[in-house]
Amino acid sequence: MTPEEEAEFKRRRKGRNTALALVLLFFVALFYAITFVQFG
């Protein structure tokens, strides 16, 4: 693997991890919102 390919691979992995973190954060926020509405 050339250094360019390695950099591209790392960049893609970082982007995927960021997207995964955002989705996870969204679900946590959704869960808290639903819980808050039910007990509010």
Ordered list of secondary-structure elements with their pairings:
Elements: H1 3-39
Keywords:
40 residues; mainly alpha; membrane; Cytochrome C oxidase assembly protein
Characterise this structure.
This protein is mainly alpha-helical and 40 residues long. The protein has one domain (1-40). The chain is built from 1 helix and no strands. It has one helix at 3-39. The longest helix is centred in the middle third of the chain and has 37 residues, at 3-39. The chain starts with a helix and ends with a helix. The model has no long low-confidence stretch (mean pLDDT 95). The chain crosses the membrane at residues 19-39. This is Cytochrome C oxidase assembly protein.
Shape annotation: rod-shaped
| Major beta sheet summary | none
Radius of gyration: 17 Å
Q: Share of helix among residues?
A: over 70%
Distinct helical segment count: 1
H-E order: H
The helix/strand class is mainly alpha
Number of domains: 1
Summarize the structure.
The chain crosses the membrane at residues 19-39. With 40 residues, the protein is mainly α. The protein has one helix at residues 3-39.
